[in-house]
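#lab-general

N.A. 3:47 PM
ok so I finally got the sequence cleaned up, no stray characters, all 490 residues accounted for. can someone with queue access submit it? mine expired

B.Y. 3:52 PM
send it over

N.A. 3:53 PM
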Amino acid sequence: MARAGKYSTSLKTKMILLIGTVVAFLMMVTSLSILFQWRTLMVGHQRHNSESLTAAISLTLSDAFIYSRAEGPQTEELLEQSIENYLNAIPTIKYIAVVDERDRILAHSDPQQYNKPVSDELWKTTSAPQSLATAIYESPPYGWIIETVLPLRVAGKQRGVLRIGYDAQPLRSDIQRLFFLLLSLTTGVTLITLALLYFIVDRVTQSLSLLVVAIDKTELETEMEIHLPKQNDEIGFLMERFQLLRQRLYQSKQQLITAQRQIYHAERLASIGRLASGVAHEINNPLNGIRSCLYAIGREPENHEQAKSYIALIDEGVTYIEFVVKKLLGFARQQVPAMDDVNLNDVITNVTRLLDFKIRQKGVILQLRLDPRLPLIQADSQLLSEVVMNLVANSVDAVDFDGHIIVETDRASETTVSFRVTDDGTGIAKSDLPRIFDPFFTTKGPKEGTGLGLSVSLGIVETHGGTISVESELNEGTTFTVLLPIGVSH
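B.Y. 4:20 PM
back already:
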């Protein structure tokens, strides 16, 4: 299964172990149940045959027993002859014994047992039962036997006991063969079930593996089509829903990008509002100069030398106004981010020129400490200008009259550059620091800020693969630090 190295136990192994264990347990329980039932039937059948045969033999031996008791010990040979006849006629009989009422052996198939008392070690059944009794046990001299004991009655009184032992080894062998047969059958069925289970689970996990591969290949940047096999089961339903989820995620991504661009544009328009007075001042000064030049030309139209110099001044003023307007339109225009080689120092210089009037109006002392050896970075200059605009404008708002602001750049590492904006303003309370990058969060008064500046700046920096952090102490000042990657081309 794909990426199986990350799993301590695969789903396939878990399913096979679980279901295989359940199947093996059920098969074992079923086999044992069948074995015990068959054993009970076989033993019961053998017991019934033994008891029936014993009852039949007892009829003949009862007559010999009565005759031997009536005629005396000299007639006991008749009883022993009857026992020998049955032993020869029925090979399954191991022994036959006739015991008197005092538990002494009157006749036995083994002559050495004659006239001995009944031993509990030899016979496990009751020595003098009141009715037919049967027991199965292992006898040291005979092995496994089925012993039946039947009382011999004379004139309604019990005068002795007939004991017959039948060979139980064939029955035991049959039960053992049945056990091994069921064991083999259980093992075979279990192995076949596990093989089928492995095949089924393998197909299921292969489908899941394809789904995992599709998930790994999913990218929200492009709506790449992923082909998955169609199945008319729960896995197929899951794959179908995954395809729909991918489409919804891609659509949501596009909607999020559109909303983000709209937020950037809205914040840019808000920044233009903050720039309005400075831009008006930047345009008003050259316009006044142009008006003065035109007035002077109008008074002395014949003075061509003077007119020529004034026209050059007018052209310079118009060029400067065009420069300011282009910068303003650059902030106001909503455009697709365009990554290019950017000089961060130039971006900062251009932005601070637009804020120059607001800075001078408040008497702020702005210092630029820009590293001239700073490498170019891959970035969108308009979006970086927005970040610089927000950070510097926030510092201008935070400091008092004659406050100090320092903007500096340097190479932070082999792969990153940084710029910092430091002021000695009011600072930020520690309770507000975790929220300053939240959209619409602001500590300024009404109509003084949208609360989007830092949120938009964070989004722009992260889009460029960078980070932005802040250090601040209340009433002591604030430092914003932006780290940006240089890019693979540098």
